[in-house]
Specification:
By secondary structure, the chain is an alpha/beta fold. It has 2 domains: about 170 residues, Rossmann fold (3-Layer(aba) Sandwich); about 200 residues, Nucleotidyltransferase, domain 5 (2-Layer Sandwich). It is built from 16 helices and 16 strands. The strands form 3 sheets. Strands 3-4-2-5-6-1-7 form a 7-stranded mixed sheet, sandwiched between helices.
Length: about 425
């Protein structure tokens, strides 16, 4: 395999000989690729002992690290279900580390080498435990990170105090990756806006503050008429009993602009009406909502709504548990607004109100966490469930086919309900 490296990548590979070696910077900047090359070399040369590769979860670890590593090695990667392998005669363990439960996988380990993907997304306690397990003489850790809040523990406790540690850091920018053509770099730059542009393109440790969808302009993003061109409709549902219940219909067509159009909303707040609804009553409302959308193929439901999912499935309405990755989902929806790929019908007044009032939680930002204030966001959650779950953060919109459920169309059989059949 021919490998083309930038001068910065070559320097980072050659000089990453500290106990802690970090590649930090923009997305698609070449930091992960060059760090994996160094890690493969270290696997063959490091002092004898076990090895551990950590990431946010096992899926992202496979995609970001294991598959590229085995591509460089010229052989097939282990399956996504494997917890470890033998490589160059060493035990190499794979650990998903999105929460503190990962500490149990590290306790008792004696490590000579480690690799950590997306360090800023794992808990500090997991990182701290890893440092105690790198106990073999001359043990090293290699890792990558995108910048987050300037109050993040990695910046405050390590990067800003690197004189206290045997630590080397390399900062990468999108133009440092020789493998990207200019068209693709322009596409990535146009996708991101606000705090994400500053972090993932400029490589800054930037605070998430103010309006989350600060690019939203009612004069542009709100339309008077529905562009009845959609190939099919996606439904997003945020379930609530004491909290409001929200549902949106999202039309998709990748041959017209906008590619996505939120055509209709349903919103019910029991705290305003004083009347709570049962799962059966909400299911009636879903069926009534779907009458206007006979081309609705995919219904993405709040993953915490187990009882409501059961009620819908009992009626033959096939739903898919939504991806509730809040930060990446918000970023993706923001990118669609920014590029003009997502617009809303003027009748969706509650959704428009929520968009304009959606702000970052500054108290959480001061602690290095990015969180929206959880207030008046139920239709926004429903829209995020539908859009991010279906398209998975794709840079270019296309027609994905979720594997979790078969495509469906709904056919009314009388004025009271629907019969859900598969196409």
């Amino acid at each position: 395999m021919h490998i083309s490296l930038s001068e910065k990548q070559k320097v980072a590979i050659a000089e990453s000989n500290a106990r802690i070696n970090l590649w930090i910077g923009a997305v698609r900047s070449g930091k992960t690729f060059s760090s994996i090359i160094k890690f493969i070399s270290a696997l063959q040369k490091a002092p004898w002992g076990d090895v551990m590769i950590l990431g946010y979860n096992r899926d992202t670890l496979q995609r970001n690290v294991i598959n590229p590593m085995y591509q460089l090695l010229g052989t097939d990667p282990p399956s996504i279900g494997s917890k470890g392998i033998k490589l160059f005669g060493r035990n190499v363990y794979f650990v998903g580390a999105h929460n503190e439960g990962a500490i149990s996988r590290l306790q008792g380990a004696t490590l000579a080498l480690s690799y950590v993907d997306e360090i800023t997304r794992i808990p500090q306690s997991v990182w701290s435990m890893l440092m105690t397990r790198l106990s073999v003489t001359d043990a090293k850790v290699y890792g990558t990170a995108n910048p987050e809040s300037p109050s993040h523990w990695l910046k405050l406790e390590y990067l800003d105090r690197k004189d206290l540690f045997d630590l080397k850091e390399w900062n990468f920018y999108i133009d440092d990756n020789p493998a990207l053509d200019e068209k693709y770099k322009s596409a990535i730059k146009s996708e991101l806006t606000g705090v994400w542009y500053r972090r993932y393109i400029l490589g800054e440790w930037a605070v998430a503050e103010g309006a989350i969808y600060d690019m939203f302009d009612p004069l542009f993003h709100v339309l008077e008429d529905s562009p009845r061109w959609n190939q099919y409709t996606i439904i997003g549902i945020d379930y609530g009993t004491t909290n409001p219940f929200g549902m949106v219909a999202i039309g998709f067509n990748n041959t017209h602009r906008p590619f996505l159009f939120i055509d209709k909303e349903f919103y019910y707040d029991s705290s305003v009406t004083g009347i709570s609804k049962t799962d059966a009553q909400y299911a009636d409302m879903v069926e009534e909502f779907l009458i206007d959308f006979p081309n609705a193929k995919y219904i993405y439901l709040d993953p915490s709504a187990a009882s409501f999912e059961t009620e819908l499935r009992r009626r033959g309405v096939k739903v898919i548990s939504a991806n509730n990755d809040v930060e990446n989902g918000i970023r993706y929806v923001a990118s669609l607004f920014h590029k003009g790929d997502l617009q809303i019908h003027r009748s969706c007044k509650n959704l428009i109100r929520e968009i304009q009032g959606y702000v970052w939680d500054l108290e959480a930002s001061s602690k290095g966490k990015d969180k929206p204030i959880k207030k008046a966001d139920h239709l926004l959650d429903a829209a995020r469930y539908g859009i991010f779950s279906h398209f998975g953060g794709k840079l270019f919109l296309e027609d994905p086919k979720p594997k979790t459920e078969p495509t469906q169309q709904f056919k009314p059989y009388n004025s009271y309900g629907w019969f859900g059949g598969t196409t």
